[in-house]
Amino acid sequence: MANIVIVGTQWGDEGKGKIVDLLADIADVVVRFQGGNNAGHTMVVNGDQFISHLVPSGILQKKICYIGNGVVVDPKVLIDEMEYLIRRGIDVTPQKLKISALAHIIMPYHGQIDIAREALKGKNKIGTTGRGIGPCYEDKISRQGFRFVELIDSSLFKERLAAIADEKNFYLTKYLASTPVDVQAITDVFGSYAERLAPHVANVSVELYQAISAGKQILFEGAQGTHLDIDHGTYPFVTSSNTVAGNACCGSGIGPKHITGVMGIVKAYTTRVGEGPFPSELFDDIGDRIQQKGAEFGATTGRKRRCGWLDTVVLNNAVRLNGLTSLAITKLDVLGGFDTLNICTGYLYKNTKITDFPPNLKTLSECKPIYETLPGWSEDISRIRCRDDLPRNTRKYLSRIEELTQTPIGIISVGPGRDETIVVQHPFSGA
Ligand code: GDP
Ligand code: IMO
Ligand code: MG
What we know:
Oligomer: single chain
CATH topology of the largest domain: Adenylosuccinate Synthetase, Chain A, domain 1
Distance between the termini: 10 Å
CATH class of the largest domain: Alpha Beta
CATH architecture of the largest domain: 3-Layer(aba) Sandwich
Shape: globular
CATH superfamily of the largest domain: Adenylosuccinate Synthetase, subunit A, domain 1
Bound molecules: guanosine-5'-diphosphate, 6-O-phosphoryl inosine monophosphate, magnesium ion
Number of domains: 3
Radius of gyration: 22 Å
């Protein structure tokens, strides 16, 4: 029996959705444990593309999917996503999709605050997705949030909303020059969301415990990436949740002893959307080529992703912070056609080599990448299904990543499709 956590090792969009969809075949249950609809996870099955923002990426494999207490849920986005899946023939009945009663709700004013604040910050903006993620987590921590518990109890919902409306309105109108909260309008529309979603509300912690006790295998689906973590990322250019593997436990309500492995998803190069330092970023033709060949546009906001070389200072930070037991290398096909490839193996900071990711953002922004250059390959690798059949230089690139990170590669992804994958060592052992 294995319970595996999947996390992004870089700044998000590493291909977590594809790998979760693939591994969900063997899992019994898939759980999202943090983030919200700032995430955009892409799955491609038989040429059909699906993008999920809130529903766990195990849904296409017909597995029981849980939205854990650590997730922040915009009920309208969730309902729209469920309708979209239903239109595409996917089962999202309450037997298949369950939401923690303790998960927090993104309220309309959270999105308003997120967008208005970013506008006020001007060039100092974070580059958020504008989905109200930060303001919702703020209210959770300051104990002013709404959970599904409150959503499905209409009188409690209205009472609490009325109680916080004055404070929200003061901030919205006086500081952000935005529109005030309309308690009645929100109560009405959220009443309809409550009716639609109530059958899906569950005690996720209890159900996961029962599943584990019955010998079922759980796949935990992380969102964002290690370097967007609220504690360990490039603060303040981060998201507002803990994205590291440890949060799989807090965000779903299970104990650490049940986690048997952590797979880190590694894009074969590096990308980032939004603001913040990124030492191996490329500003030249190579960066543009990677961006175009990799179709690097955000799955949530459609923004162009910034691109750069693979960075093993970043990866080793992720290895340590998440306790990675294996790696999945994605988008390796995108690197075909370059004469040489660079891997960043350290940073030069004031003439000193650094190999630990610096906690100080000013230091990080002054770091210059130290590169190791490897030979490239020109062959199309998208049809290869066995590591040994890859071109020699591709194998060298992979082996070097394993050496530099001291972590074995379990999966190699050579295209967006579920089948465009080389499984070296399946994380659900014995599978
Ligand atoms: P996530 O947020 O980590 O799930 O990643 P996204 O879905 O935001 O971005 C990854 C993008 O790369 C999606 O468009 C995927 O379909 C695509 N993708 C995933 N793996 C591969 C791969 O191995 N090769 C190529 N060419 N595309 C891939
Ligand atoms: P997935 O799960 C890439 C980034 C935003 C911004 C910062 C804060 O698809 O990998 P937020 O709206 O969370 O307050 O924005 O975090 N960001 C992501 N970048 N992939 C994601 O998710 C992201 N979710 C948030 O671009 O820089
Ligand atoms: Mg994404």
